[in-house]
Write a structure and sequence with these properties.
alpha/beta, 4-stranded parallel β-sheet, 6 helices, globular
């Protein structure tokens, strides 16, 4: 099984939503559900924090996904070693992670960067490679963030069947 790790800042908003959405997508995909495991962490997380209330509520109400049991974790050597692919929410996260864990280079990308590099599309038309941080924002901002993540994860699901065969 291949292990995918999603990373953001505190592991209470973006990466926890990405983990929850991706797990749900895997459950729906007969071809991939037994080929991947997923986890999330933060570059500046406090171990054991719950996902933010807005993250929990948006995923439950809009996607039927329950992440209320999520507990944050700080990125560490063991998580880096375990991961076959690390997908960060921003370029800053990617750079911080590789700066602290040089062995992560070569398997660490922003989520959007990875999708662009490995999809058959022409790219993101110069758009940002970052998923905007909803921390402290309204439920509407969290909903837009979840939609952005879900859109990228649907593209990721199309890429993954071939990606590890080509690495």
């Amino acid at each position: 099984m291949k292990h995918i790790l999603f990373v953001c800042t505190g592991n209470t908003c973006r990466s926890s939503m990405a983990e929850g959405i991706f797990k749900d997508e895997l459950l729906k995909n007969k071809e991939l559900k037994d080929k991947f495991t997923v986890e999330s962490a933060g570059v500046n997380a406090y171990d054991g924090d719950t996902a933010s209330a807005n993250s929990i509520n948006v995923l439950k109400e809009k996607y039927g996904i329950d992440i209320s049991g999520h507990r944050s974790q700080l990125i560490n050597d063991a998580l880096i070693d375990k991961a076959d692919l690390i997908l960060t929410m921003t370029v800053g996260h990617r750079e911080a992670l590789i700066g602290s864990f040089p062995k992560a280079k070569g398997k660490t990308y922003t989520l959007k960067e990875f999708v662009i590099r490995n999809s058959k599309t022409d790219g993101n038309d110069g758009g940002s490679l970052d998923v905007r941080d909803p921390f402290g924002g309204s439920a509407d901002i969290y909903e837009k963030c979840a939609e952005e993540i879900a859109s990228e994860l649907r593209k990721l699901m199309d890429i993954l069947p071939n990606y590890f065969n080509n690495v």
